[in-house]
Amino acid sequence: MSLVRGGGAESPERWPLEPDEEPNGGRMSFLDHLDELRRRLIICVASIVVGFVVSFAFIGRIFEFMMRPLQQVLPEGGRLIYTEPAEAFLLYMKVAALIGLLLALPVIMLQIWLFVAPGLYSNEKRLAIPFVLFSTLFFLAGALFSHFFVFPWAWKFFAGFSTDYMQFMPRIGPVFALYVKMALAMGVVFEMPTLVFFLARVGVVTPRFLVRNTKYAILVIFIVAAVMTPGPDVVSQALMAGPMVVLYGISILVAWAFQKRRDPDV
Q: Which of 10, 94, 126, 200 is most buried by a 10 A CB count?
């Protein structure tokens, strides 16, 4: 016995569907969705708290790693300053929170997957491990790229206006806020291949579609880079847009390699 789906006959091994193979994994009410979302959010927050505690135990080394490239760009003898009594302590807390978020990324990505998994077919649910692994690695790669390349160039641009009449003495609070903004932005940008991988596997995008819209994608990329970079200099914008163009090219290859194949019997 075979059933017809979308105008084509499927093999008996695939149809009829078992209960756990239904695309919606069983119907859920609106309140059930809210309860599931709440549960996933609680797990995400708990993982970030654990990551925060672990990070705070090594906050000295972490702080030195993050501040070294900022200090190297300052004029000789220059230092980052703080003007409020609790500003330095709160900065340590913010650093631990940022690193705690990065440490919790695998758990967060897994919870995102588990939240959308009930709407997937059983063969699509097998993508959980690749999704969690690659989304975590690409996000961390983006944050590190910002730390070692994009932010130092932007920071150097801002520090280059010192003259005999002006001395660059940045407050640590706004500097760290800018650092976090750029690190998280680059982390999200580096998720492009992972997103395309997932969309290609479920048949939403194809390599032909991505190639056909390359010129529009490049235009959007440079607009996004101009918005995300803090300074008007071309170098920092190019440092952000360049990797995005490369990632778009990688995404086309990912879509080609992992695109959803048509059933030859359909």
A: 200
> Residue type for 117, please?
A
Tokens representing 165?
Answer: 């009449």
Residue carrying structure tokens 């004029």: 75
Residue type, 259: Q
Please answer whether residues 92 and 63 qualify as being in contact, where contact means their C-beta atoms are separated by less than 8 angstroms: yes
CB 173 within 8 A of CB 91: yes
3-state secondary structure the chain: CCCEECCEECCCCCCCCCHHHCCCCCCCCHHHHHHHHHHHHHHHHHHHHHHHHHHHHCHHHHHHHHHHHHHHHCCCCCCCECCCCCHHHHHHHHHHHHHHHHHCHHHHHHHHHHHHHHHCCHHHHCCHHHHHHHHHHHHHHHHHHHHHHHHHHHHHHHHCCCCCCCCCCCEHHHHHHHHHHHHHHHHHHCCHHHHHHHHHHCCCCCHHHHHHCHHHHHHHHHHHHHHHCCCCCHHHHHHHHHHHHHHHHHHHHHHHHHCCCCCCCC
Selection from 191, 36, 38, 200 nearest residue 127 by Cα: 200
Which tens digits make up the pLDDT trace of 45-78? Answer: 999 999 999 999 999 899 888 888 777 777 676 7
- Asked whether 120 and 176 are in contact (CB, 8 A), the reply is no
**19 neighbors 26 (Cβ within 8 angstroms):** yes
pTM of the model: 0.74
CA angle 96, 100, 102 (to 5 degrees): 125
Amino acid at position 112, single letter: I
